[in-house]
Design a protein that fits this description.
The protein is α+β, with helices and mostly antiparallel strands.
């Protein structure tokens, strides 16, 4: 993704070029933590960022990914309401992002393309949050695990995920022993192959 594809307004592109900072991030970099002051809005150019909800006790739940051409609705909401971050943002693969200073988020609303971009971002994330709530409320943990693995594959583009059972348990807010048991059931069903700190997914 290149910002030129996202935006065609010459004046807006000039402002982005002058004000936004391009950054290359390594995998597993924590871009944002709960309680952080939000100074920038990230727009993903290449790679992906995993958004995880984390409460005061440190319990986590995976929410969604930000893919190329997308931004984080939670960051947009917090910045517009002058609130601190309520989520953790973790870089999945090597990821290139644009960091837009928050003071330009409102200033650039005069550009219809920017206004449409922020509105679409919030609408898309709201829809994904509803899907996540529905998944938690009405689905069994094995279905949540399958959805989680599918999204990790979608984010990385490879079918072997380097991850521990404990890391999955943390992001699904479930005991590690339960996740291990479910993964072994999937392996018996030949849907995954388990190895040390990695899961190969076949479906």
């Amino acid at each position: 993704m290149r910002k030129e594809i996202l935006f065609t307004d010459v004046e807006l592109l000039d402002s982005i070029t002058q004000q936004a900072v391009k950054k290359l991030l390594k995998p597993n970099t924590i871009l944002l933590s709960p309680g952080d002051t939000i100074k920038f809005i990230p727009i993903v150019i290449k790679g992906s960022i995993r958004i995880v909800l984390q409460n005061k006790e440190g319990r986590e739940y995976f929410l969604y990914y930000i893919f190329p051409g997308e931004s984080c609705a939670m960051s947009l909401s917090c910045c517009q309401a002058s609130r601190k971050s309520e989520i953790k943002a973790v870089v999945e693969d090597e990821t290139e992002i644009l960091l837009v200073p928050i003071n330009f988020v409102d200033e650039w609303m005069k550009y219809p393309e920017w206004k449409k971009f922020t509105s679409n971002t919030q609408a898309q994330r709201f829809s994904e949050l509803l899907e996540t709530i529905e998944l938690i409320a009405f689905s069994k943990l094995d279905e949540q695990l399958l959805t989680y693995l599918n999204k990790r594959i979608q984010a990385t583009g490879v079918r072997t995920i380097k991850i521990t059972h404990q890391e999955i348990a943390d992001e699904l807010n479930s005991p590690r022993e339960v996740i291990t048991r479910l993964l072994h059931q999937l392996q018996i069903q030949k849907k995954v192959k388990l190895s040390r700190n990695a899961i190969e997914v076949f479906w």
